[in-house]
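so the lab meeting is tmrw and i was supposed to have these ready like two days ago... anyway. pasting both below. for each one the top line is the aa sequence and the line under it is the structure tokens. i havent really looked at them closely yet so no promises
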Amino acid sequence: MLNVYKHSHFSADAFGHGGNKRTAQVTELLKRSGIAFHEANFSNSVATRNKLSPYLTGIGYSRSFSTNSKNKYAIGRYIKLFERFIEINKPELLLWESTSGYNSLLAEILHKNNIPVVGLPHNIESLVTGSKSMFSNKESPDWLFEELKYLAYCENVFTISREERWLLSNAGIAASYLPYYPTVELEKYLLNIRSEKQRLNKPLKNKKDILLLGTFYNKPTFDGYVALLRHIKHQKSFQINVAGFGSELLENMFPGENIRVWGSVSNQTLQELIIRADLGVVHQQASSGFLTRIPEMVLAGIPLLVNEDAARSSADIRGVNIYRTFEELSMLLNDKVPEMPPVLQRPVEETFFTNFVKAKIDRGA
């Protein structure tokens, strides 16, 4: 049996934030397909008493004057950490979700040791506004080609959005599309909410309930919803509910009877908010990756209004209505509420992913 490892910088939690959800999806797919693997543990096991050796390794790796001494030491320490992991655990295949920060070095170290890597980036990090390279200190998007260099070490890169697969393919990197879809447990939870919405079949109120849901610690999401709320905060014909991790950051920014900020909510409260909602609005500044809440809200039965930047890989999802301007959004909000969207089907790309990994294992990687 091949010695397979997987590493993510997030824990697998189907009810957590977007990163947790993607890791939960990948973990469940592997287990459901009977693919045995170990979770790689890169604990701080490298002795730090001799700091000169990692520092010299870091200098040898990064000769850029823009990389400070602290970063050079960290680079050297991570290189030694990954080399030690290979020496002790002898991996024969690694499924690599942690494609950002110092963990980028992992693919290069594995490649140098002839160990195949399958990439599963949660997003192209260098295209996220405000992100910075650990190696050159460049800010986004100027370090895109640095990031592509590490992804190119992979046998195949399974992206969460079609746009990223297209980008990597144009850079000569083997890439496939693995769309996000909730775990079986979360899918059941969302479909139960849909059934309850159908059962209640509420008559349309004079004041529509609008739900804004997201992870507000994510800068493109935070900035997008701030811009949205500034535009619609005076429209008294809506009751706007804002919920999700970090949404409490908005609590004092938008006082008003028609806006309620719920903060991080329990599953029970989230269920109640979704059942109550007539529409969901998803508004994000330009970024990479994919918004996991889009298919989840559609599964739960909420018609969505989504701006162009947020609608990555979502244009073909029935129930997603894309708007380009705030004026267009206002027209859609004041129009009649769209019908409940049909249930999403589990994507066939999940089977392609697991078959690819199985084939690697059967061939001895």
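ok protien two:
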Amino acid sequence: MKSPRAQTLFSGTLFVLISLLVLGCGTTDNGKSTAFPYQFNQELLDQKPIKKVIFASSSFGVPTKSYLIKGERKVKSLAREYLKDNGFTILPDYHFQNAWKQATRNFGDAYDPTTGKINMNTWRQLMTSTAEKLRNDTKADAIIFVDVIEVTIQHSPNLQHLARWDGVIRKPTTQGIGAGVPVDFEWAQPIKGASVQTAMFTMDLQRIFSSRGGIEPLQAVDLRHSEPAYVRKKKPLRSDSFIEEGIQLAFHPLIEMDNYPGLPAAATSTK
């Protein structure tokens, strides 16, 4: 059985993380770093180093948008390779999948598609039950969530029209053939961008780490009409280099990123 202390730790962590990771918005070009304010418990990691991890088959929070699912598979695959390259052992996914399915049969689904909301009590029950089974059936040190989420971003109105969010800088893209983007086009209107979101827990569901890294804008300027407008990209998340940069950002400082654009680890870590 999961201890009351661990249940309390996880309950508080869950509310904080879903607020930070799921509800947070991208930032505009303000001349400062837009790196996500990660949470990192170095003291907890020092007590028991993480070597073996299990990837969660469920999303951390609201399920991934359907049009991003294919791209998310690619993101998770590259995230696995990144962790392996940095000394982690990835245990088979079926361990989490089986434990989560069993928990869902017992407690129901935490996500209600009619309201788009998560029942927090059910979510805690699912995670508590899943972690307990994984502790009994595996030698995992941690559970890790890697998800692709939508965030709100903006291209700047200046000459290059750069978008900056979650540590990345991206140029706008266009779709279709036309006369080009009008001079008076409203570049700075809010659009959707993609970020990779990470969260790692011990097998007692204490948070080790959580963060985000930007990937790419999900909307491009459609030139096929007389009045160009932002539209959803036909094939998002195709650039390996963009995804790899987002992954490096989303795992820093658990895995230190060269030339990290945000504050040093000591300035933002938590105990």
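from a quick look at the 2nd one: The mean pLDDT is 88. The chain has seven helices and 13 strands. will dig more after coffe
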